[in-house]
Predict the structure.
Amino acid sequence: MSKFTDFIDGIADEGKTLAKDELKQLIASAKKDESDFVRLQAENFERWTVMLAENELTAKGYQLLVKKMEVLTQLEVIKLKVKAKASAQRLASGIQEIVVKSLFALI
Amino acid sequence: MRNFAARQLPRQSAISRIGCLFCLLSLFLSVSGCSGIPISYYDSTTYAQLTSLKAETTTLVESFDTKKVADNESKIEATTLNLRKAYEYEKGKGSPNSDATKQFEKIAQLFGSDVKEYRESGPGSLGTKFFREAAVVLGQAFDIAIATENLKNKDKR
């Protein structure tokens, strides 16, 4: 058992509002994700949870850090958009060079 | 009959290849100028500003865990100004660069929220290592923007 799962399991939740098993599964699978970004965010979340358990973060500090993750996601979405645009642009430039300039002159 | 089929096959194949090329040409036209999709190129100034600001802002935010607000005010002011200058540089490149401008906006907001939390709570109130972790998040935000810049194609001009 890790400090993270120990802490989640130890949270008193009489109303059963927290899906503890789902949360542990979500983080465990995110840590194995092929995306560097997803793995990094899972590691952030796990580290902050352990820091909360060890009183290195207050509950408010923990909440503020988790909210900051949303900005990282927004930045990553822009990055993926730029990546797709750059790929399309490379294809378009290749067509311009090879097809329009060379092939069209031959057919 | 056999000779006719033999002559037809390469011809049909050539027609289908040219058809494919025209499809690609349509894609080219839609990606480049005709559709108005804004595309920006890699900019070494942007890259240099991002790497420099990453070091400057994260070092400052890390210090929030131990330094008094009053002792950091002049550095906060200087760093905020440097971020603003970099943002204005990106904004000045116009709509093709809107993605980088949005990323700068979000990074500036993230830094602004760190400063706000520091001024409101002071060192230690949100946890002894809160701002060290806030600096990690800020550094990761810069890393994404730096990676984004590196994904852009080099301008041939």
About this structure: Residues 50 and 56 of chain A are 9 Å apart (CA to CA). Chain A touches chain B at residues 37, 40, 44, 47-48, 51, 55-58, 60-62, 64-65, 68-69, 71-72, 74-76, 78-79, 81-83, 85-86, 88-93, 95-96, 99-100, 103, 107 (CB under 8 Å). The longest helix of chain A spans residues 59-106.
